[in-house]
Amino acid sequence: MIPAGFSYVRAGSVEEALDELSRHGGAARPLAGGHSLLPAMKLRRAEPGVLVDIGRLRELSYVRADGDRIAVGALTSHRTLERDPVVAAQVPLLAAAARRIGDPQVRNRGTIGGSLAHADPAADLAGAVLALDGVLVARGPAGVREIPAREFFTGRCRNALAPGELLTEIRLPAAPGRSYAFEKFSRRALDWAVVGVAAQARPGGGVAIALIGMGPTPVRATAVEEALAAGEPAAEAARLAAWGCEPPDDAVASASYRTHLAEVLVTRALAAL
Amino acid sequence: MIGSAVPRKEDAALLTGRGTFVDDIHRPGLLHMVYVHSTEAHALITGVDAEEARSLPGVVGVWTARDFAGLPPRPSVPGLERGYLAAGKVHYVGEPVAVVVAADRYAAADAARAVRVAYEPLPVMATVADALARDSVPIFAPLPGNLALEQQVTPDDVTADLEAAPHRLRARLVNQRCAGAPMEPYGVLADWTGAGPTVWATVQAPHRVRAEIAERFGLARHLVRVVAPDVGGAFGVKSSFMPELFLAPELSRRLGRPVKYVETRGEHMVHTYHGRDQLQDVEVGFDDEGRILALDVTLTVNIGGVPDPVGIGLATLTSYMLGGCYKIPKIAARYRSVVTNTTPTASYRGAGRPEASFLIERVVDLVARELGRDPADVRKANLIQPGEMPYQTPFEGIVYDEADYPAALDLLLDRLGYAGLREEQARRLADPRAPLLGVGLSTFVEMGGFGPTPLFEQFGYLGGWESANVRMQPDGSVIVLVGTAPHGQGHQTALAQIAADQLGVPFDAISVLYGDTAVVQEGTGTMGSRGMPVAGNAVRMAAVEVADKARRVAAHMLEADADDLVRIGDGFQVKGVPDATVTLAEVAERAFKPHLLPEGTALGLENTSYFEPKNLSYPSGAHGCVVEIDRDTGRVSILRYVCVDDCGTVINPMTARGQIHGGVAQGIAQALFEKVAFDAGGRPLTASLEDYMVPGALDLPPYETHHIETRSSFNPLGAKGLGEAGATAAPQAVVNAVVDALAHLGVRDVEMPCTPERVWKVMHDAS
């Protein structure tokens, strides 16, 4: 529980943060809510040489309706997502997922950008953003670029950000009035999901379904989506929940139990739509 | 005051973050000690390279076993002693191999990682089966077959009785390994100034620790001061003699500076000793009514990589309690304590007794199932009746005190609405969409009030008594010094209540101090549910003496006979003479005026008493649990948890309820969540609270608590103790409920912890 030595800088603006990140190269890590990074450092699973604290950049904490898209600043807290009226009206799936993260203390400190960039395969918000077909906005030395959520998660706790890039915004297609479901199965109330399912009804019919805890990254349950699109009954489609997944087989749960949970949770999510 | 739910004196400081724990204590020039722990489960140490570590900034030194060769070994069973650090070989992952001392914890932690230990791996035996296998190799040198102890606890052979019984069945039960996981991990700060050390430590028995430190260093005891400040939970795991209790003072002596060691959570999970870990092979003979005629039990205990002197024999206590609340005419019990390449095991809340209660309560349910009878009826057919108390068990010296087991069960069934639950269960079974319902019962008895001296000496203690000094101040207020060292129990509150009743002094005018060998006369400590039944009686004894003397002084002041005085409000009055009164404060001041006291009266109002209990006490009760099981996921949810406890006299109903809540929480944790696990190579799989599933408040049900108060005749207060009752009663109440919910599938047992996956697999395999 004693981290290795590191130095610390607090960024006063996004530009400053980008400068610091590119100056220190791979040795630097941005620090937002710190809920994943600091424990990892204390366990010496992460030993960044420099922490660039972006936690006070209020300019990155916002929820804006922008035409048919909702823009969420990367430093928006889980608690804000849980309570924000625009989120509740336009992307309620995001609020439902945020509500299931940890306890109020965690939700007050944790940020959506931090959670997504950490890229834990069992992160609740990652499932929601993936099911919502979100787009992640990164700023870096080479300018601004958009990364679709489907391409953002590249491996267990790995993301598509290039060195020196900072995740600044998450853009989500508005889904007002459309049904959604978030099903999470965890060992303890405040634990990460063993398996979780985010489901979002699409505008032209059909359902987008994302799974968390079923592989090295959050994934879309494309087999279920396609079966539903082809008119299969929900119960039949749900059987394909784990199709193509490589669920972990670890002390938390076996791969076969995770496979079973995926089916149960997809069934429940579809029933709740 | 006894029986009133006064708020705890302790809480004002603790709840505002102003408690004083070991890590809060600072001394000038403080150095920090960190271990280099073994990363191998079983290996020869072929070299320790500390050159780089020594060269790091802030590092004072690095020491290995050979640097402490002159120090006498740690306390243990004769012949099984060992040093403070692994010498030549390691026996489990987490075993301390070296210590680093540095100017701060960060430098010390970095240096510990820079120490390179070279290992030559040996075959790993992480389970008792592997350790006892024919081709096993010895783990701990003095024990060639890895068998640390083989004990025939009773001479009885019940083979004939089992054969003669109308029915018999066998079972293998598993009581898994658990970690104490107190909020505050282990910590020691030693400051050797002048002739001896002062040691602040998270311990449960400061006087015992003082004796052991004095002996190691060849010091007279008055030169060693041990202080247990606020201690954030212990649950028995702070009663083992961890090497840091000796290394910190020794390094402080060598370096001439104070040395602090505070365990991290990760270290706690592999370094501080675990508890439980028993395999239980049972055969039971019974008749058509479910009356148990004979019980044959073989326990196999995993005691870990090096035997702890308590852990090695803990199954003796399991054996003594095998009969539970039942009249079982014949019990044969034996056990084996086996060394494996895992963290050692020793005391954990209940220390041997919960394992027994689990065993017999699971067996009663198995008997009921086998006969198709209701588990409540089978319990009733076997319970010891109140008229049979005190009850001599088949084990010599194990005599249960007064209790009414059938009344506890009846009250439980009534509060549960048992018949209604059975109807609801049947209804749900018929509806494939409804979650399954299960009801589990646990009628339990355990040992509390640890003493008396002849028993407690066997665990290395000076005695099984407890001591109290009650001292009235010249203004009539009172200071009590007690030999226990609580770590969350609330002794400042409960013991003040006891003293208040005897002295006639307001609760707020009494302070209770403990935990410091320089302040407290002598003490045994806090473990084995001995606070109220032993320390409570010591306080009572001393207070009676002080009250008696106060009355004599008052009589002198009022020029009356002591027998003619009556207590009024804040003092005494001569019976029938309203004007002839004196306040306790006046009496207290008078006690310090030699010229105004009767000739020959000793000055002061003070008494030190030692209370030696006649025997152990036996807290008992009946707990019931109602669970719901999700048919799709196997998740067990506790709908209700109902407790009926008989701890004898209840001193403070609120703190009593707190003890029940905490104990039951740990029992539920064992039943549903927690297990310390290792892989086949002996690598810990639960080295953090991410993996070791300590449940939180949201994972636990509300508790319904009820008390039956049957005073024990074994001590004047009539108290039996309560600290371990919940942890003893709860695991099998929950497991019996889980198995009950699945019984229609032919399920006979579900191993703890009953995780969703395990329950799902059991359901899946059965259907």
Structural write-up:
Chain A: Pfam families: CO_deh_flav_C, FAD_binding_5. Chain A: Residues 1-177 form the FAD-binding PCMH-type domain. The complex is a heterodimer of chains A (273) and B (767). Helices cover 34% and strands 25% of the residues of chain A. Chain A has helices spanning 14-24, 37-42, 78-83, 85-90, 92-99, 104-109, 112-118, 124-131, 149-152, 222-229, 234-238, 255-272; strands spanning 7-10, 28-31, 50-53, 63-66, 69-73, 135-140, 143-148, 153-155, 158-159, 166-173, 180-185, 195-201, 207-212, 219-220. In chain A, β13 (207-212) and β14 form a beta hairpin. In chain A, α5 runs antiparallel to α8 (124-131). The longest helix of chain A has 18 residues, at 255-272. Chain B has 3 domains: 11-122 and 186-262, Aldehyde Oxidoreductase, domain 3; 275-448 and 616-766, Aldehyde Oxidoreductase, domain 4 (2-Layer Sandwich); 453-611, 2-Layer Sandwich (Aldehyde Oxidoreductase, domain 4). Chain B has 20 helices and 28 strands. The longest helix of chain B has 27 residues, at 531-557. Chain B is globular. The mean pLDDT of chain B is 96. The chains are: A alpha+beta (273), B alpha+beta (767). Chain A binds chain B through residues 1-5, 43-44, 185, 187-190, 251-254, 257, 260-261, 264, and chain B through 34, 105-106, 109-110, 113, 264-266, 632-633, 635, 673, 677, 685-686, 688, 691, 693, 695-696, 698-699, 755-757, 760-761.
